[in-house]
Amino acid sequence: MGRLRCTLQYDGTLFNGFQIQPGQRTVQGELEKVLAKMHKGRSVRIVASGRTDSGVHAKGQVIHFDSFQRIPGEKWKQALNAQLPSDIYINHVESVSDDFHARFNVVEKEYHYYVLNQTQPDIFKRNYVYHFPYKLDIEKMKEACRYLEGTHDFTTFSSAKATVKGTKVRTIYQASVWNNGSEIEFIFRGSGFLYNMVRILVSVLLDVGQGKRNPEDIPDLLEKRDRRLVGKTIDPQGLYMWKVKYNDVEKNT
Amino acid sequence: MGRLRCTLQYDGTLFNGFQIQPGQRTVQGELEKVLAKMHKGRSVRIVASGRTDSGVHAKGQVIHFDSFQRIPGEKWKQALNAQLPSDIYINHVESVSDDFHARFNVVEKEYHYYVLNQTQPDIFKRNYVYHFPYKLDIEKMKEACRYLEGTHDFTTFSSAKATVKGTKVRTIYQASVWNNGSEIEFIFRGSGFLYNMVRILVSVLLDVGQGKRNPEDIPDLLEKRDRRLVGKTIDPQGLYMWKVKYNDVEKNT
Question: Can you tell me which residues the record assigns to a coiled coil (chains A, B) (predicted)?
Answer without folding.
Answer: none
